[in-house]
Every structure is written in structure tokens, then in C-alpha cells.
Design brief:
By secondary structure, this protein is an alpha/beta fold. The chain has helices spanning 3-11, 32-36, 46-51, 54-75, 89-103, 125-134, 136-160, 182-188, 190-202, 219-224, 241-248, 260-265, 268-282, 302-315; strands at 79-81, 108-112, 165-168, 173-174, 177-178, 206-210, 229-232, 253-256, 288-289. 50% of the residues lie in helices and 10% in strands. A hairpin with a 2-residue loop joins strand 4 (173-174) and strand 5 (177-178).
Length: 319
Amino acid sequence: MTPREDFIHALERRPPLPGSRVTHFELVFFLTMETFGKVHPSHRSYGQWQQMEERERQLHREDLADLFIRTAERFQHAAIFLHPNPGSIEETLRLIDLVRARTGDRYFLMLHGDATYGIPSGSHMTDFACRIADDPKGMEEQAQGMVQRALDRGQKLARHGGLDGFALCSDYCFNTGPFLRPEQFARFVTPYLRQLIAGYRDLGFYCIKHTDGNIMPILDQLLECRPHALHSLDPQGGVDIAEVKRIAGNQVCLIGNVNCGLLDTGTEGEARESARYCLRHGMPGGGYIFSTSNCVYTGMRLGRYEAILEEWREHGVYA
């Protein structure tokens, strides 16, 4: 199968094929400067774009497409999370077309597509909390509007073609638990997340729900919304893939749980053991995609990421 087919096979929790390797991707691979001598697309200045002539803009588009493809090829990622820069719908469609033209159907392509309330930034946290208390109806109306706008965009993307799905990247939880109490989450997030995922499914898209932190108090609500997969299963938030596999492995594909903190500040042995632990508990029965518990972020040592890939290649093959 192609990497894209392997990825979909896992998302749909089909039984693993003997001799096949667990599929792998990273939500974002930021070490493009260290690996390829190129600034990651998300870190490039929009001001530069505004000053470019069309010829330069086309070179920029092609460079972005090339960088995403080279990353997938170098590290055997089955999926590419595209980060258009700039992020207008027109530039997004151009980037999808460029990557598809160069790779065909080899890779699963996704975009960010969340439209639900996440943890507000520090500068907005007080206002958000006050609105939850003082204007709950207005918060619900705003939540509904965000979902509708996201689905309108989803329709345009579906008509255009070439995109496989969305990573829904609103973070809901700290290491200690959700920002909203479970009963608040059930009012202000769950109905809208459920509607968003149902709408994307109806358009033919796959949905990967990402959130860091301790999701266990709201795991039942996340499952109720029927994403195809949960990412990142954050061990720094106390999320144990063995436990989530036991509770939800027959309902949703699991992605991640390789401890980013250990990749950054632990020993190489600890990082390798985290990778082996995730493979040991995630693989049985299929429905697992190997990944770090967040992303390969700026400042992480490339050698540590390559070390866990060695574990994946050795221990990630189905008998």
C-alpha cells in the first residue's frame, strides 16, 4: 500500500497486515533549518510575501511544497500537515495542488480545521472566563458561528479536491486537566465539536482531534464526537496509551504518546523506552499511528527524533 493508504488503514482501525510497519507521521516537523537549511513555513514573515512579485511568490509556493515533501520522504511520514503561508483559501488550494502534482496520491494531506474554543491566551483568559459566566448565550452563538464558517471553508475544499482531512488543533487541557470543567465543556465545546466533525465526515474528510494535556476527565466527551483519531495522548499530562487503548481502542485510532519531554530533556535511553512502550501498547489490533506526544519542535535535538525512529523501524512491524 502507499503511505496514504497505510494511514487511512490505521485511521479506520482495520486489522494490521502481517509484515507491515506501524504508520508514522508528525503533526509538525519544525527542524527544517537543521535538516534542510530552510526556515519552516510557519516561521516565515508575511511581510516578505506582501513585497514579492508574482514570480517570487510562485518560487515561494514551490519551495513550501518541496519542503513538506522532502520532510515526508526523509522521515517516512505517511501524512503531510500542510501549513499554507499565507493562509488564504486561494493560497491553500494552490499548495494542495502543488503537493498533489508532485506526489500524486502517495501522501495523506491534511490542514488545520478546528473551530471550537480552546484554552485562551493569557491576555484573553480573564475576558473569556467572564463571558462564560456573564454571557453564556453569546458564547454559544459565537461557537455556532465559528463552526459554520469552518464548514463553509470545508465545502470549498471538498469541491476543489485533493485534501484528505483535518487536524483539529484547539488545545483543551493543561497537564492537570481541562481548562473548562467537564460540565462546562459539555455545554460550550462538545456540541460544536460533534457538529464540526459530523459536517467534515459528511464532506468526505477524516478528522484527527489534537489536544495536549490531561484529557482523561473529558475523554468520554471526545469519543462522543466521533473523530477518526485522537492525538497527542500527552504522557506529561498523565495520559497512558495502555489505559486509553483499553478504554477506547475499539472506538478511535490513537496517535502519539512518545514523550516529547524525554526527547528534549531526558536521556536517549529514556526516549527510546518511551517509543518502545508506545509501540508495545498501541500496536495490538491496529488503530495506532506512531508519533511524538506533540510535534518535533524548534530546539529539540534532531538526533533524539532519529533515535525513536530507529526504535520504530525495529519494533514497529506486525508479526
